[in-house]
Amino acid sequence: MVLDTEIIDIIRKLLEEFNYRRIISIPVVGSVLFPLSEPGNIINFFRGRQNRLYSHTLGPSFYEYCLQVKDKSLYILFNLFFKNLYVGKNAVKILLGHKNFSIFLSKGILRIDGDFVYSLIKISPFGRFYFISTSIPFYKDFNTRVYIGIDSVCLANNLIRFLGNRYYERALDICSGSGIQSLVLSEFSGEVTGVDINPVAIDFAANNAFLNKRNNVKFLLSDLYNNLEGKYDIIVSNPPYGFFPDNLKHWLPGYGGELGIEIPLKIIEGLDSYLSPRGRGFMCLSSPIVDGRDLILEKLEEMFSKKDFSIKAAVIEHCINADLLDFYKKQRVKYFKFYHLLFQKGEKYSLSVEDLSMSRKIEFSYAIVLLKLFSRYNSYVLKKQTLICKNLLLEGKKELSSGNLEKAEKLFRKILMIRPYDLESHLELGEIYIRQNKLELAENYFEDSLKLYPPLVEGYWQLAYIYRLKKNKDKAEEYLKKACNLAKDMDNKELEREIRKMLRSLRLEED
Q: Measured between alpha carbons, how far is 5 from 12 in angstroms, rounded to an integer?
């Protein structure tokens, strides 16, 4: 996928032409617990404190139906670039125009799949800005994905209120991701630097700055403070703070180290060195409550009690992942407090905490009961889905071995509707499309399979075979060499010999 100035210019014109920002009025269901919090959401909306796009509501289907009737063009863009659904190819081609449609395809932003098209990017409006991030279901490289979560939006909203009319000469955004905090800072600062360890995030953030015509922002590849020099008047961060088992670290975004606080604490530790004498810090994080102890508050006391820092900690939410209740129980974590922290350097040490109101605490207690019930139901659904997918896979392989390619394709596609990241279905669909001589589709599925599981030898040799059919011998040899190296690393001598035979055969063709 290529994001460059040409495609960003086209996207900007497209968003302005259809006034894409209007989708902000469309509610999106965000939680199974919406009946508990919906009254508060409605009150906050009328107070102007809530962005409806990122919160749940009782009637999303009705709003979407109204949009579909009143403005079909915007509805298509909403489904394609925000909800990231499959959309009819012809409808998208007519909307974008043949030339732009071809450019989106050539840059890898859109992909054709039969009569449908889907997007590898998501476009989200926030205030007067637009932000491009990676598509959740279709962008398969988990190590480099860039996303905008509810925590990013919540922090950005509070950051705007916190900044007020104050001006900052130098501003820093650590773990900048899509660049949402950096661009908010750019309206209140002379010079903004955003840093991230993910090179794809750096590219997306730079493109978002270009999309929104912000010239006082730059983005650097850096592991936290490593590549930085000098002092900053304000440091903002939305760091990774997730805490989950080892087997989920690859699949779930935002692992924050041990108990989810390892990376946030490194950022906090650097504030004293990188803030100017009267500098300020503003960040969000999640604090585990272990055996009744708030670990973040304990660490803040330990780190700053002898320094000139005042700290205000506002509890935004109590939260816990319903699917990981058993894991948290083993770690003695009862729940998490989601904080927004404000640091002021150059003031006498103090630590004040603004906790949730009693009504919100009671609401969370009820939510925990519902979450436990939901967790059991979710386990049941997952088991049922696993059984369904297993049967579909067996049936699909049977149809494939019988030569019924179309039936097999439908069955494997059904699996991906249930489990978008199912590796075996990607491989089987790639095989089907090779047999049907749909080489572009086959290439897409095998490339995605490598993103899902990089050490997959089969993915490399299948791609080599596709490039061989396309008469691209250099690419074919490149992928066969990668497959050979992987087989060697696995100490699979038989597989290595087979791949070397393929390489020799390819070179003989060249001769």
A: 10
- What is the distance, to the nearest Å, from the Cα of residue 138 to the centroid of all Cα atoms in its chain? 11
- The helix (run of H) or strand (run of E) holding residue 439 is helix 439-452
Pairing mode of beta strands 275-290, 232-237: parallel
Domain ranges in the chain are 5-119, 129-134+142-372, 375-509
3-class DSSP assignment, residue 313: strand
392-424 pLDDT, tens digit per residue, is 999 999 999 999 999 999 999 999 988 888 999
Cα separation of 465 and 95, whole Å? 36
Packing angle between helix 358-401 and helix 405-418, nearest 10 degrees?
A: 170
Other beta carbons within 10 angstroms of residue 200's beta carbon come to 17
Whole-number Cα distances in Å, 30 to 53, 173, 461: 10, 27, 41
CATH node for 129-134+142-372 = 3.40.50.150
pLDDT for 380 equals: 82
Lookup result for tokens 């799949």: 113
The residue among 61 and 250 whose pLDDT is bigger is 250
8 Å CB contact between 137 and 84? yes
**Beta carbons of 178 and 147 less than 8 angstroms apart:** yes
Higher-confidence residue of 40 and 238: namely: 238
DSSP states of 178-189? TSHHHHHHHTTE
- Among 134, 130, 103, 119, residue whose Cα is nearest residue 209: 130
- Which CATH class for the 375-509 domain? mainly alpha
Q: How far is CA 408 from CA 122, 405, 415, 426, 505, in A?
A: 30, 5, 11, 12, 31
> From the CB of residue 108, how many other CB atoms can be counted at a distance below 10 Å?
15
Q: Residue 22, Cβ neighbours under 10 Å: how many?
A: 13
Determine the pLDDT at residue 65. 67
